Amino acid sequence: ANIYLCLFLFCLFYLSCDNINNQLYLYEESFPRSYNKLNEMEALSLFMSISRVGDEARFCLLWIFLPFSVLLLTATLVYKLKQPRNNVDESLRTHVYEVHQIAGEVAASMESVKQCILLLNQFPSLVNHPMPPYCFTPFLRACWSGNTPLVRYMLKNGADVHSCTVSRESPILLAAYRVIKSKVWDPSVLNLLYEAGCDLSEPNKRGSTALHLAAREGHISLTYWLLVRGAHLTLRLSSKS
């Protein structure tokens, strides 16, 4: 990028000097015919001295531009050489989509779960790696998909129980959503999150909690599970909807 910038500036300076020369030449051609008070030799001498401005400007800009370019490229090269080579980051970029995909699969196969765990063993920081634009992490995706083995493994290996998406959906809220959509009552992920210290009443951006969601959907088992464990009854939605 710095090389392209230097080339662009050089071309810009060079074309500017050529434009100065062209304008002076055209003005030189028209000047002797417009002003009769100066004889031809005086006018020619005057404009020859003026036309040298373009050449001198090009020469000066060239000598200013070259040291600046060399200094810029040298500084960039030194900066790049001083940066440590992080092969882990390259590997993360290679495997990050695979981990996110497996963690977000509903009813993922055991082979996929084992593959995801192997990758997380190799790259532990992927557990809390957010994926734009909604900032889902593999841990949040596993909560949303109801993947009990992955959630259990991630909680034992540094999963952030206070993480949330851009809309502030917490792990409990995502797990509650999956429980409601599931045909079978299975609170195993909810139990793991509760034991890990997740806030049962953490609201999203609209002020909706897991209890709001369970009550709105008429899910009696989930509502009872939340109330028994101390979910707040007095929280209100921040939106009229």
From TrEMBL:
Entry keywords, A to Z: ANK repeat, Membrane, Repeat, Signal, Transmembrane, Transmembrane helix
Protein name per UniProt: Uncharacterized protein
Statement: the UniProt record of this protein carries the keyword Repeat: yes
ANK repeats: 206-238
PROSITE patterns the UniProt entry points to: ANK_REP_REGION, ANK_REPEAT
Cited PANTHER family: ANKYRIN REPEAT AND PROTEIN KINASE DOMAIN-CONTAINING PROTEIN (PTHR24198), ANKYRIN REPEAT-CONTAINING PROTEIN-RELATED (PTHR24198:SF165)
Species whose genome carries this gene: Cuerna arida
Pfam family, one: Ank_2
Top-rank taxon: Eukaryota
Transmembrane segments: 61-79
Signal peptide (residue range): 1-17
InterPro entries: Ankyrin_rpt (IPR002110), Ankyrin_rpt-contain_sf (IPR036770)
